[in-house]
Task: structure prediction
Amino acid sequence: IQELLRVMRTIDDRIVHELNTTIPTASFVGKVDAGQTCRELYESLMDAHTSRERIIKNCIAQTSSVVKTLREEREKAQDDVALLKQLRKEQTKLKLMQSELNVEEVVNDRSWKVFNERCRIHYKPPKSQ
Result:
């Protein structure tokens, strides 16, 4: 899942480059529709952030369910070492997924900050953000 998230975060990693190459400076302002470019970038960011958050939360829900099931099994079979190892592995995976949610928040905040700095005069996003 981390590799998938890394690939999905490329839009956030490239936002500064994207803005520098698509939003015109004062001398080129007439050659590019900055409002349209910012709107498209806004929609791309929203889609990327929404899909990544949905994927992470889905993984957290699935892993939480597995952890709950393993805990219930562990209570029935206290001496099962393999079961304990599997439970610990799933708990570690759950903590990793929860930390990815925090990483996602930081990545999103950084992207929106850069977007707002460069696009605020060209495009006003809907109030849902």
